[in-house]
Every structure is written in structure tokens, then in C-alpha cells.
């Protein structure tokens, strides 16, 4: 069952790009958070999306928010991706699809490609926006619009 607007995000753990266990309770429920699920590191659309989050990361920080990217890529892949594109935010490895299943992120194009969905979560851990769209650039704009409403 997919998480939707108004749902509280359950606690979860996953490895970040440094191989360290990330505990969601250290961020979610404490500050606004943007979690975006994307298909694959270093593909054109995903790189554009990640770099757009990077380029506007300061805007998210000024709104008190943290950004977290999630894909099924390995920790090593995330590490290379983050270094290559100087990504300042958290990347989580979801190689076992536990997070995709927890959030209910759909697959796209007849189940061939992992979906691209962004969640904006308020400081209490409640989902305020679910944006599902294959175009990566729009996600940043939608997330910032919602965060500005929350402040």
C-alpha cells in the first residue's frame, strides 16, 4: 500500500553513499524533508534531476529542509555519482527495494523502470506532497513550492 498525503512516514534505515547506516529518525520528524526516488545513477534524466537538487540545495537548506535521494544503485555507485556531480545531500541505496516497497513507489513504462516520485514531509513526519512524474526537473520546483507553504 502506497504512502499518501497525510500519512506519517514510518522509520527506516538504509546505507548512504559512504556505507554508513542512515536512520530516518535522525531527520524525519525533526525537520522538513524531501525524499526523492529516482531510477538510476548517472543516467541523463537522473543526473539532471540530482544536479538540479544540488544547484538549489541552498534554497532547501534556507527553508530548513533536508534532501534525500533514493535509488536501487549500490553504495559504491552512489559514492561515484555523488563525487562526480558534487552532490551535497544524502543518497540512500535501496538495492533490496525495501524503501520503494515501504513508500509504494510504482514502476514506470510497463514495470521496466523504477518510478520517479518525490515526497515532501513536514517537520512532524507527515507527508504533505507526493509528486509522481518521469520528468526530473519539475520535482525540484514542486518540492520548493510545497516547502514554502509549510514555513
Automatic annotation (TrEMBL):
SUPFAM superfamilies (alphabetical): Thioredoxin-like
EC number(s) stated in the UniProt entry for this protein: 1.11.1.24
Similarity section: Belongs to the peroxiredoxin family. BCP/PrxQ subfamily.
Residue span(s) of domain Thioredoxin: 3-151
Any GO MF annotation of the entry: thioredoxin peroxidase activity
GO cellular component labels: cytoplasm; thylakoid
Enzyme class, broadest EC rank: oxidoreductase
Name of the featured protein: thioredoxin-dependent peroxiredoxin
Phylogenetic lineage: Bacteria, Pseudomonadati, Bacteroidota, Flavobacteriia, Flavobacteriales
InterPro entries membership: AhpC/TSA (IPR000866), Peroxiredoxin_AhpC-typ (IPR024706), Peroxiredoxin_BCP/PrxQ (IPR050924), Thioredoxin-like_sf (IPR036249), Thioredoxin_domain (IPR013766)
Catalytic activity from the UniProt record: a hydroperoxide + [thioredoxin]-dithiol = an alcohol + [thioredoxin]-disulfide + H2O
Organism, as annotated: Flavobacterium lacus
Record-linked PANTHER family: AHPC_TSA FAMILY PROTEIN (PTHR42801:SF4), THIOREDOXIN-DEPENDENT PEROXIDE REDUCTASE (PTHR42801)
Pfam assignment, any one: AhpC-TSA
Record-linked PROSITE patterns: THIOREDOXIN_2 (PS51352)
Keyword Transferase: no
